[in-house]
Amino acid sequence: MAAFSAEFRWFVQNALFPILFFLLQVLNGPSSVGDMSSNSNAYVDKQGPTSHPAASSFEMTKNTKNQQNDSKGKVKDKPIQGEEKNLKQSDQATANASSSSLWGRENGNPMTLAEQEDQPDDSKEKAKDKQEKNSKQSEQVTKHENSKSSRGEETMSPADQACNYAKGKWVKDNRRPLYSGSGCKQWLSPMWACRLTQRTDFSYEKLRWQPKNCIMEEFEGSKFLKRMKDKTLAFIGDSLGRQQFQSLMCMVTGGIERPDVLDVGWEYGLVKARGAVRPDGWAYRFPWTNTTILYYWSASLCNIVPLDAANPATDHAMHLDQPPAFLSRYIHMFNVLVLNTGHHWNRGKLMQNRWVMHVGGVQNTNRKIAEIGQAKNFTVYSIVRWVDLQLPKYPGLKAFYRSISPRHFFNGDWNTGGTCDNTTPPEGKEVLQDESSDSVAGGAVKGTRVRLLDITAPLELRDEGHISRYSIRATPGMQDCLHWCLPGVPDMWNEMLFAQI
C-alpha cells in the first residue's frame, strides 16, 4: 500500500499536473502559448537558462501583459519602433525588480535568512530608506569633492586650470633676493655669482615674476622639502639646466652652508672620471626629508655613443631619436623631471665634439634632418614623445620640458662683439600672448602628458639680467649674454616649477 501511495504521488506531480497546466493554457488561447514560448527562448538566448527565478518572473510578467492586451483586442503584430523600445525598457525594469525582490541583491546572490528578516514589509518605508541612502551618498560625494578641492587636487577652479604662468609682468619686490649671491658658495659656481665680480648694479635681483590671471605660490625651502619628501627631482640638460639646478640648491638652503646635505652622486654614477675636469653631474640629498636634487649634463638630450670606445679620438654617434642613456637608466627613480636643450645646437659644437647624426640606429641620410635647426626640433619631439610613453609606467612621475632661455646679443653675436650692457630693469612691459614664444617646445608637448615650463616670453624682457662683461672668466671683447647672474632670473624658473608640483 505504501508503495502504491508513493507511485500515485509521483504520477500526480510529474504527469497529471503538467497535463492539466497545458489544457489550461490551450483554453486561454493559442496566442498566449506562442508568446510565452517565444519570450522564453529569447531570454535563454540572451541570458542563459530560465531556471533563474528572475527569468520565470520575466516570462510570467510578459505573458500577463500579452493576455491583457489580447482581451482588449489591441495586440499588434509588431509595435512601432518607439513602442518596441519602451516595451523592452519596461520589461527589463520589471525583470530587474523581480530579481531584486526574489533574490534581494543586484549581484544575483540570494539573501541570507538574517537579511530577509531585516527587510521591511512596507513598500513606502523601502522607498524612504532608498531615498535616504541616495541622499547620504550624494553628501559623501560632495564632501569628497570639497576635500579634493581643499587639497588642490583634481577639482581646481577653471581659473586655476587655465593658468598660463608665462603671461604677466616683472614687479619690484624688496624681499628679494631669496638668497645671498656672495654667500651661497657651497652650490653656486663663482662664474655665475655676479656679486663676486666688478658689477655694481644689482637691481635685477629685486624683480619677481607676477602671472596675470593667477597667483604663483611663493617659494619656501621648508615647504619645498616637505612637498618633495622621499622624492627625487632631476634636471637633465645643458649649462642653463645647471644654472637652474644651482639656483634651486641655493633657494632651498637660503644660501647657507649645509654640511649635513649629503653628496649621493655615486648612486647615479655621477663621479669624476680620471682626467675629467668635472663629473657629468651632481646629486645631493637632504636627509631629514629624504629629498634628492640632481643634475645631469646632456647638452643635446639624445644618446651619444662613441663609435670606437678604444679610440679617444673617435667620432660619436649622435642618436637623435634615442634618450640619453642616463635618463633611460634612472628614470624609474625620479619623481620630478625637468628637461631642456637648445643653444648647443650649432654646426661648430657638433664638429668640435665629433658628433655624427644617427637616426634609426644608422647614420642620418635625410637632408631635412641634417639641417641643424631641424635636427634640434626632431630631437625635442623625440625626447618628449619618449618620456610621454614612459609616464604610464611611473604614475608618480611629473615631467616638464623647459622652453628655451633667450639670448640677448646686440650689435653682433657671442664671437663677433655682441653685447648686453643694459642695466635698466623692464618697466611697464607685460606678456599678454597665450602661445609660447618657443613654438617648438609648445608643439612638442601638445597632446602629451609632459608639461611645458614656459619661461621664454618673460625672459625676453630681461636682457639686463645676463652676466654680460662681468664674468670672472671674461674674455676681452666677448660678453656672456646667454647665462644669467645668480641670484636672478633662473630663480623664477624654480618658482614656476614649485607652483606646479
Secondary-structure map:
Layout: H1 2-28, H2 30-47, H3 53-72, H4 81-103, H5 113-118, H6 123-150, H7 158-161, E1 168-172, E2 207-211, H8 221-227, E3 232-237, H9 239-253, E4 262-263, E5 281-286, E6 291-297, E7 303-306, E8 316-319, H10 325-330, E9 336-339, H11 347-353, E10 355-359, E11 362-363, H12 367-370, H13 372-390, E12 398-402, H14 439-445, E13 451-453, H15 456-459, E14 466-468, E15 480-484, H16 489-498
Parallel strand pairs: 3-6, 3-9, 8-10, 9-12, 12-13
Antiparallel strand pairs: 1-2, 4-5, 5-6, 7-8, 10-11, 14-15
Helix pairs in contact: 1-2, 2-3, 3-4, 9-16, 13-14
Account of the 3D structure:
The protein is an alpha/beta fold and 501 residues long. The chain has helices spanning 2-28, 30-47, 53-72, 81-103, 113-118, 123-150, 158-161, 221-227, 239-253, 325-330, 347-353, 367-370, 372-390, 439-445, 456-459, 489-498; strands spanning 168-172, 207-211, 232-237, 262-263, 281-286, 291-297, 303-306, 316-319, 336-339, 355-359, 362-363, 398-402, 451-453, 466-468, 480-484. The chain has three domains: 15-119, no CATH class; 122-155; 165-498, no CATH class. 41% of the residues lie in helices and 13% in strands. Strand 5 and strand 6 (291-297) form a beta hairpin. 30% of the residues are buried. InterPro entries: TBL_C, TBL_N.
